[in-house]
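Regression test attached.
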Amino acid sequence: MHSAVQRANTVATIAAILLATICAAASFLDAFNSPSLQAHVQVVKINRFRRQLDGNDEVKMTLKMSMDLTSLFTWNTKQVFVFLAAEYETDTNSLNQVSLWDHIVQEKERASFQVKVPTKYPLIDQGTNLRGKKVGLVLHWHIMPISGRMIQGKMPLSNFSLPDSYTTRS
Amino acid sequence: MDRIKFLGDVKIRPTLIQLLNLGMIICSALMIWKGLMCITGCESPVVVVLTGSMEPGFKRGDILFLHMNKEPIRAGEIVVYNVDGRDIPIVHRVIKAHERRDTGEIDILTKGDNNQVDDITLYSGGQLWLNLHHIIGRAIGYLPYVGYLTIIMTEMPIVKYLLIGVLALLVITSEE
């Protein structure tokens, strides 16, 4: 007859193999999800645009955003991390990506929303290149699964131009 | 054949075969680990999440699969990095990236999803940015809970010794 240890060993091994297969299958099926999301962003107001003491430009603004992320969710989705990045280029830098705002959506029911918020993180340049600069706003998302591969995506939204001169102290 | 070995009755050949089997198991495990290191391009292709700074996405005890290639680091990626002079890798998200036109070097600022402030206080000395050479890898996959055993073994070494002791006992007293 088989000993208790042998039985426990067999059960544990089969359980581990089954779990691994289910995790792999869940992650594999995620690849077939083709999301079609909609989003819109608008800069409502530039709250502050100045040069910091250490010499870099800094911008704080208020954004009005609406988005519908429900198509990103599958049954293997634990949460969707979404953030809005300001992307622009300067003479010294071929690409600058600065996150202005981020949010975690944990449930599909709460994936469609509108907000009007001040930027969570200030847009700080490496230098003083922001006056009159044309900045693109790109929505990025990161789908974090219950198990398996993580999926990233992005969608460029509108562009806007910063004022030609610093605003007075607010 | 005797089904139970007595300590005073050790036979040379079966013992050597058992030791060889043990050696084979250890070598296979090492080969898989080194092979993974080559495929993924990272020093440690699997890391255990140690803190709650990325909750609710990653909790303590989850494991992350890493990958590293020459693709430039972009905002939103979850990276694992080492601060100069510290051994413990940190898993956080890139929130700012500035790529220099001339050198292609990228200055990176990271922040844990669950933290209020960015990581600038974690970087050593007066360092303001992370660069590629600090990054061990990018997180591409995730399994929950599996790494909790590693955390227990690190924080309570007695569990590690107990586990090794039990395994050694099982190997010695088994037939194969």
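Expected vs. actual: identical. The helical segments of chain B are 12-40, 148-155, 157-173.
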